[in-house]
Amino acid sequence: MKKLNSIILQRQMRLVGHVKYLDLEYRKAMEAIDARYLLRIRKILDIMTERDKVYFQQNKKTVKADKLRKLIDQWAAQYRDVIKSSMAGGYDNIYKIERAAVKEGREKVKEIDKPPRLILGSTVPAIAGTSALRYKKYVDNKIKQGFADGFDVYSLIVGTAKAKYNDGAVASRNKSANAHIGNSVMTGANDGRLVGMQELGFDKYTWSATLDGKTCTQCAELDGVIWKTEDIKIQPPAHSRCRCALLEWEQDDAPRDGEETRGALEDFVLKDPLDPKRKDPYLVKGNTTFRKWFPTTSEGFQREYLGPARYKAYKEGKYKFDEFTDKHGRMYALDELNLPLK
Q: Do 275 and 219 meet the contact criterion of CB atoms below 8 Å apart?
């Protein structure tokens, strides 16, 4: 990626880096646990009789069926503990970093208590417990499906070499864990920034979304909205994998975060540097909102973001960008817009 002089972009890249690092740490911890439990599960699968398999499907008891269920329970419990620790650590560390960063070089005005550690409105133990329970049920169902249909049960759990092991229960669990870790990092970052800003006496904030194709319509609509402390209606992250932030605002016409520029990227995935189709971020004025930025992007990007029917209506002037969504940022269905379904 080209080096860009934008604090907002640098901050977003730093948080993405934190998520990747914590995800790697989580995977290292789980790899040793997975290896131990997968070995034991495979041994049981290899010696289970047809009666054992039928009884497992019917939730009835045999020695081997019970042993398999117990291993799945223990495996899920281990995952629960690891993801809970990863989420809590991610939140706490990033909270401290962001709180300190926003106050660096500035005089402290007041001390504010740390907010409760809530990720998208729920506690870390509750999220970890629910995620582990879902994983347990998912593995259980995969095994029952394999027994019923005559599939290779073990491959349903670990995945297949053809798909680089991305099609099994373990891969699905890891994707879910990555989302939980990302949500924890973004929540900790935004809680830390907000507390730091309030300690400095700021009472006005602006919502900052990411200018690229992965930003949802809800966050695109919120981008640039200015609130006073008492009027804040929603705090980032607004949803799972949200990358938005609340930034301090000193005057209504000031560039966000005191910078004159922010990063933008007309793409939906930041591709590998060697990819010939890769597009690099570029800089726009710091007070550019998603709504102002979108009309300046390429036709290909606009078509992919809106979809063919909405894009046609947009280019013909039938709808403005913000008229495709309701006040909550939900994109209207084509029939709600009286647009053709094809």
A: no
